[in-house]
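Entry:
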Amino acid sequence: MYSREQASQLRQAFWTAFGQYIAPHLSSDGERINWSNYKTGLKHVYFRMQAEKKSAFIGIEITHPDIAIQELFFEQFTELKNLLHEYLGEEWVWAPLTTNSEGRTVSRIYKDLPDVSVFNKDDWPALISFFKPRIIALDDFWSGAKYSFDDLRE
């Protein structure tokens, strides 16, 4: 078992390694980007990557505090579902209203990777291989799809 500080250091080391590995890859728009902290440019819409003790996930998370507006965002993504899956090359899980680890109601579109641990350095290649193509595909998708959300901007 790791102390809180050791766990934090291992997580930070993983994300640093991931960032260095993916840094040479430019965004769809040809720009340098912080892949580990991807900015969608749309308030309350995030591309999240999370690696934990027993699994990892990557996804789109909608966190708008107004549930009705959150549902509108999710519906807009639903309209783009086939396009998203085409970019990803796989189908993801669609969870319209769920609770995150802080107890907030969010909507998610995500893919899990079970049976890996960020605390096991032997799993890091699998984690990087899981995250890299998917975050790049999300960026490719978002490069054109973000304009579909212009009416929902605050």
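The chain is about 40% helix and 20% strand.
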